[in-house]
Amino acid sequence: MTRKDRTEGIYNRLEVLDASEREQFYRIQLKDMLKYAYRYSEEVKKRFDRAQFDVNKFKDISDIKHIPILKKKELIFLQSMGPRLGGLLTKDMGKTLTAIAYTAGYGVIFYIPLVYLPNYVHEHIGMDLGLSMQINTIGTFLLLFFIPLFGRLSDTLMRRKTILSLAFAFLVLGSYPLFLLLQQGGYLLILFVQLVFALAIAVPLGVSPALLVELYPAEDRLTGYSLAYNIGLGVVGGTTPMMSAWLINATGSTLAPALYLAGLSVVSLAGVLLMLDRSREELQ
User: Fold this and answer.
1) How far apart are CA 181 and CA 29, in angstroms?
2) Partner of 101 at 20 to 30 A CA spacing, among 73, 108, 146, 262?
3) 3-state helix, strand, coil in the chain (%, to 5)
4) Domain range list for the chain
5) CATH code assigned to 88-274
6) pLDDT (tens digit, 9 = 90+) per residue, 127-152?
């Protein structure tokens, strides 16, 4: 009887390791995890040093017994004593604030042209809602091409700060004139304004992921990125349709959202200019 090949049709070689290979794999993975914890966690480093546990001497699974044990109640206490958000707001306060300033304007730029504009055109310009949604869909579809284009440009030809500064400067100067054009009505004119906005928003959409990743070192990256992104896009950007409607009611001017867009573009531009430009540099 022929023995069946256990590796036939498997997804990964790791699925069919024998006992000795699996033990060696676990040992390597565990040692890497211990080295990472020792390098990036001040508390783990202190505990290992107090126990005279040398990660580099970890050679066998049996050495697990020498690893200092951290109990759950101790972990809760250490977290309560440590700086909030992993120290992000104390170690990198300036960096975090500039990132939030950048994403705040980015959020407004995203929500006004791509979320609020169809309803604005319907209510204040008088276009049929179906047609305004059709125009918005065309602009959103073109983002599929614009976003990777600007991402590629920032990866090869232009520094990220340069291309973002140009986009936000354009929105500072161009938001009000573009809203004035909307007041004229007409399908082609509104389509033109929508496409111009789509082109402008494609710049931060294509460049921001790399920009924010490069901004933070490894130990702060996920916290910093998520904090800046969710405050900017979620809180400031998410409330933009409501703010736009309120500004129109408060001022009596249908051009109020244009000034809000231009004002937050100034905030984003300031955030970009204050950031360190680490385009295409090795990650920290």
Assistant:
1) 60
2) 146
3) 80, 0, 20
4) 13-82, 88-274
5) 1.20.1250.20
6) 899 999 999 999 889 989 999 898 88
